[in-house]
Structure formats: structure tokens, C-alpha cells
Amino acid sequence: MKSITRILKRLARIFQIIVSIKWIRFWKLYHSKSEILIWIPNLSLLYFGSDAFIWDMATIAGLVAENKEFRMVTGKRIGKYHDKKIFFSINNRYNIYGFDDYTNILLHITRQLEIQGNEVFPKQCETIFWENKTYMHQRFYMAKVHEPRTRIFDSMKHLLNAKIKFPYLIKAEHSCSAEGVFKIASYADLARLVADPDFIRKNRHIIAQELINMRKDLRVILVDGEIVLHYWRINKDKEWKPTSTSYGSEVDFDSFPEHWRQHIIDTFRSLELTTGAFDITWQDDDLSTEPIYLEVSPFYQPNPKMEVREKAYAFYKQHFSLFNSWDAKYVDVVFRIKQKQVKAYLSASAL
């Protein structure tokens, strides 16, 4: 049954992609000598079932909407190009050699492409934020972003010597979707993490962070200083846990703290990102206090609004519905956001 559901979900995505691209204009604008490239590093069957496929097709739709000529390039010879405008989708498929720090590979690629006179979208200075929490928190500190108290240690030994008061969080350097977040409430919790060779091996730095008393956070997606999507993720349990929908959180797309809108936009602009998703919370869930910015990422997976609320949001993500498909709605919201991204990048590049 699960395999059938997986196939139906993929078909729903593919169908929505097909109807979302204006194919006549696509063929008129596709040009083999165009200066605008869409780079697809690995064109395989797995690619067509991936999130990167959706974002790449959304990039095509965005360029078509802006009436720009473009072409697609595939494979590993992207390094031969100079003085081009290169769009690509952030993901971990560039780490073909399986390094622990999979984010650094993409950082190296974008840096080399820019050295060769190319404009890369996202830019190298934006790509460095992707699942790189050490750098992200350093930038938060430099930009005076209001975040939980955070300390970064060079080793677990230094953390142990610091004797931080329980409870607190330890965050893996490279992770997403609430993975790699550990609540440390006692020496026993800390001992289990110290004894995990996989965690120690993969984390060059240890990030310790204040545990905020919160039961909900606000995901805010911005493009060029505009809030394009927002939703609360609400933990209904009494105890703290990550608010990712995979943990069963409720989702509220309607309410928004309007009195903090400009604060959120100004904070985002201080980080010099074209697009990104903030995770924001408030101490004791008190919206009269200053927002606390937990994380930001230049790549994100937006949750589309669902009208039916009888079941948990995670149920809709995992199951298939013929007339209210999460997957079709997901493709639709990705295309809508990507069109704004493409327009912002083209505008900044004076194309």
C-alpha cells in the first residue's frame, strides 16, 4: 500500500508540474546559446522523484514568466562555463564523494563558478547559510539578530568543561527538519551524546543553545524582503519537543503577529539574503515580547495551506488524496515562490 501511495503522490506532482509550465513559450525561449543556464548536475531516474526536480521546473516556469531565454546543462562539466548566469537548486546531491560536511562541497562549487565570472543563483554568500549552523549563528551574532543564547565549542571536551546549566539544546552543525537537535536535561543525556561516535565524528563544532520555553514557532518565508508565506507549527504536548510537522504539530496558516512584520523583514534584510525561511518563536509564547530567531535557511520546503483540518497536518503530507492532494498543492506553492525568486535575482542582476 505504501508503494502505491508513493507512486500516486509522485504522479500528482508530475501532473501539477506539467500544467504549471507554459510549454509553447518554453520552446520559443529555449535557446542553445543562451547566457542563462539551469544546471542539473545529475539527470537520473531518481532525480525525477526528487525535490530538486520540482524546484528546477519551477525555475523554468519563472524564466518563462519573465520572458527570458535559457538553456539547461546537465552533468559534471559545469566548471567549463565562464561569464554566465547559472540557476541551480540547493540540495545534497552535489556531494558525490559522501563527505560528512556535505554543505562545503556546494560552497566550493559556487565559489569557483563566481571566480570564473559567472553569476550564480543562489549566490555563494547565500549558499553558505544552507544547513551550516555554525556560520549561521556567527552571522546572527554579527548582525545582532535576537536569538537564544548560543555558544559554539571546538570540541565536546570544551563543552564538558564549560559546565552549562541544564536543560539546554545541542544542535548538529549540518542538519535540517528538526534532525540533529538534542535536548540535554541531565548528565545522562549528555553522556549518551558523548558516546555517539557518529555525532562526534560529523560535528567539528558543538553548538549549545538556551532552551526557550515555547510550544509553537512561526515559519516565515521571505523573498526580496517580502513575506510570501507564513504558518505556525504548534506542539500540543506539555513538554518541549521540535515543532516540525513530522512530530505531529498542528499548523495554523491564518494568524500572524502583524506588529512584528517590519521587525521580521528588517532582520531578514540584515542578513543580506535574497530568499530564506525564518523559524521564529517567543519566550513563553508571549507575542508582546521581542521575537527570538531560531534559524534561517536559503533553501526550504514550504508547507501549502490545507483547508480540511479533521486530521493532523502530517497525515496529509504522508497520504494521498485525489481531490485535495498535498503534493499538487506543494508544487503549486513552490512554483509561486520560485517565480518571485527568479524575478528578484534577475532584477538584481539587471537582466
Short overview:
The protein is an alpha+beta fold.
Count the beta strands.
13
Count, helices: 12
User: What's the helical proportion of residues?
Assistant: 25-40%
- Major β-sheet, in short? 5 strands, antiparallel
Could you list the spans in which at least 5 consecutive residues all have pLDDT below 50?
none
Mean pLDDT: 92
Strand content: 15-25%
Radius of gyration: 21 Å
Shape: globular
Strand order of the largest sheet: 11-10-9-12-13
SSE pattern, N- to C-terminal: HHEHEEHEHHEHEEHHEEEEHEEHH
Describe the structure.
This protein has 351 residues and is an alpha+beta fold. 37% of the residues lie in helices and 19% in strands. It has helices at residues 2-20, 23-29, 51-65, 102-115, 124-127, 133-142, 156-162, 187-194, 197-202, 261-270, 313-318, 326-348; strands at residues 36-40, 71-74, 85-87, 119-121, 150-153, 168-171, 181-184, 206-210, 216-223, 226-234, 250-252, 275-281, 292-297. The strands form three sheets. It has a five-stranded antiparallel beta sheet with strand order 11-10-9-12-13. It has a four-stranded parallel beta sheet with strand order 2-1-3-4, with helices on both faces. A four-stranded antiparallel beta sheet has the order 5-8-6-7, sandwiched between helices. β3 (85-87), α4 and β4 form a beta-alpha-beta unit. α1 crosses α12 (326-348). The N and C termini lie far apart (48 Å). The model has no long low-confidence stretch (mean pLDDT 92).
